[in-house]
Predict the structure.
Amino acid sequence: MMYPWTRLAAKIKGEESQAATTAPVDPFAAAGAPTAVPGLPPQPPAAAHRVAMASPAIPQHAAAPAEARAAALPRPGAITTTNALASATTAGAVATGSLPNDFDPTRILGMVGDEPILAGEVLTYIIDRSKINAFEVPPNDWVKQRGPLIEHALPQILPQLIENKLIYVTFVRDKDIPADKWEEIRPKIHKHFGDTKQKQLIEKAGVHTPQELDARLRQLGTSLEQHRQIFLEQQIIMQAIEGEIPPPEDVSHDQLVTYYNEHLEEFSFEAEARWERLMVRFDRYKTRQEAYQAIAWMGNQVVYGAALEAVARQHSQGPRAADGEQYEWMRKGNLASTVLDDAIFALPVGKLSSILEDEQGYHIVRVLERREAGRIEFSDAQANIRDKIHAQQRSEKVHAFVDRLRQRVLVTSVLDKDADATR
C-alpha cells in the first residue's frame, strides 16, 4: 500500500512567517515551526572570492550519524561533517541516477561543498512535516514504502534541501564562529527545540519521554538527534536570511490595483450550499413503483411536520442516513449526480424539491443555506494583496541570494545525471 505524502504550508511564528514562505527555506515546515532564537551573530557581507569547497571522496554508503554531525559543528573551523565522515570513508563519490527501492539512511544524495545530504535527512523532513502521521503507518508497510517514498519525493525535496544547506554552510563558514560562541548558541536552540518541536513529535508519536520518542524514530529510520540537528540548521538559515534580505519595499496603490486586476481568479469564489436529503435506492426494491411509493411516503412525513433529519435517520438509504442526510458546504459541480447538483443550486432556500430521479434512485432535497458565486471586493482584498506582493519580493531576493552562493560553492546531487539526460 502506497501512502500519499504532501507538502505542508509553512507557518512560522511572528516575523519568521515571511521567511518560511519562500521556497529555499524549510520547504516542509509544519504548523508551529520554530522562531529564531536571539543571540546569533549578524550575517556579514558575502565574500567576493570563490571559496574552494570541493566534494571529498565519500562512498555512497558512508556512515554519518547525526550525533557525529552535531559533535563536529562547534569546533573552530569545523563547519561541516567532513571530519566525522572521514573516519568512516575510503573512496568514492556521490552516485547519480535513480535510487534503489531499498532504504539506506547513510546514502549520500547530494553534496554542498563538503557537507553531505543523506537519505536519512530527507526522511526526517518527511516524517517531521508530512500531513500523514508516519507513526501510525503499520511497521511492515513503512519498511516497504520508505525507500520508494524518498525516490518519489526527491525531485521536489532535494533541490530545496540543497538550497537550505547552501545557506547554512556559507553562513557558518563566513562567520567563523568560535567554539565558545557555539557553546552559548547551541543550548539555547536545543532548549527551544525541546519546548516546541520535540513536544509536537512526542504527541504525534503517542509517547511520553524523549527516550521513547527516539526509539520510535529509530524504528522509522531516523533519530531524535537528527531532528534536533535539522532544527538547529533551520534556525541558522533563518538568521542568515534575516541578515541578508532587506525589509519589504512599500507597495503603491497602483501596484495593488494591478495585481488585483491581473489575478481576479484568486479573489473569485463559486456558489456553495448546505443541504439535506431523503433517498431510496433502486437496488433495494423489486420495482421502481415500490421505490417511488417509499420516497413519496417519506416526503409526506416531512410535509406533515416531521423533521427531515429524523425521517432520514430512520428511513433514508443514502450514504449519510445515520447522520440524518445532512450535507455541509458544497460547491456547484462537486456532486457526481448532475440531477442533484442542478436542483441544489436552483431550488429556493428552505423549499422541498419534487421527487428527483437519477441512476441510483429517487431523492427529495432541501437547501438549508446557499452562498451565491461572487468576488471579493478590492477594498477587502488590499491587505492580502500587499502580503502576496511582499512574499513575492522576498522570494525573488532569497533566490538571488542563493544564486550568489552557488557561485562560491560546488553542489552535486543524484539528480544531476537525470537533469543532464533531459537537456
Remarks:
- Residues 11-249+389-421 form one domain.
- The longest strand covers residues 361-371.
- The radius of gyration is 28 Å.
- The mean pLDDT is 77.
